[in-house]
Amino acid sequence: MRVLVADDERLLADAVAQGLRRLSMAVDVVYDGDSALERVAVNRYDVAVLDRDMPGCGGDEVCRRVAAAQQGTKVLMLTAAAGIRDRVEGLGLGADDYLTKPFAFAELAARVQALSRRSGVALPPVLDRAGIVLDSTRYTVTRDGQLLSLSSKEFAILHVLMRAEGRVVSTEELLEQAWDEHADPFTNTVRMTVMTLRRKLGDPPVIHTVRRAGYRIG
């Protein structure tokens, strides 16, 4: 899952990003509306977490443009204004959800997860394929009933592959969905992460390499 966090409160934005990354999300962070627009112009995000009161291009305008682009990105608007009128205005701009500051991180994470399930083809939070059960709400993976210990990136790659339901997923797509903008596309990071994931999943192998195309599970 790819998430954009845009908030001029740097400590808050960085803390939110760090927490979401621990939940196996790929997170890009910006601190103003202009930078947010630059990111959404070049990257496909499942969810954008936008502060309504940012310098430069405000969160309202970023929300309008994200909604107008119709790329499937869901918007969670953050604001210190807690009045009903403010929430109605935010939703009227095209936001999909609204959260007032201060907030509990657990609630924000749950809202981001819920929005991500609405950003594309609706899928259940628990995926089951080839004896592997992945629970994206509890962040657990089992194979044949055995609980597995995966890193955040291994979990993210497995989630992308299982969502593809047997379709071949390219290395570029895995980089786009499981890593943030600082990932080096010329490294073998995907190959190495898939290799360790295969080892942890055990035998018989369920992740298959399709030469010059990518990976599939099944």
From TrEMBL:
Determine if Phosphoprotein is one of this entry's keywords. yes
Q: Where is the Response regulatory domain?
A: 2-116
Gene3D superfamilies from the xrefs? 3.40.50.2300, 6.10.250.690, Winged helix-like DNA-binding domain superfamily/Winged helix DNA-binding domain
BP GO terms, sorted: regulation of DNA-templated transcription
Q: Which UniProt keywords apply?
A: DNA-binding, Phosphoprotein
Query: Has UniProt tagged this entry with the keyword Transmembrane?
Result: no
Cite the GO molecular-function annotations of the record: phosphorelay response regulator activity; transcription cis-regulatory region binding
Q: InterPro entries in the record, alphabetically?
A: CheY-like_superfamily (IPR011006), OmpR/PhoB-type_DNA-bd (IPR001867), Sig_transdc_resp-reg_receiver (IPR001789), WalR-like (IPR039420), WH-like_DNA-bd_sf (IPR036388)
Q: Which residues bind DNA?
A: 124-218
- At what positions is 4-aspartylphosphate found? D51
According to the entry, every stretch annotated as the OmpR/PhoB-type domain falls at: 124-218
Instruction: Give one Pfam hit by family name.
Output: Trans_reg_C
Q: What are the record's GO terms for cellular component?
A: cytosol; protein-DNA complex
Protein name according to UniProt: Putative two-component system response regulator
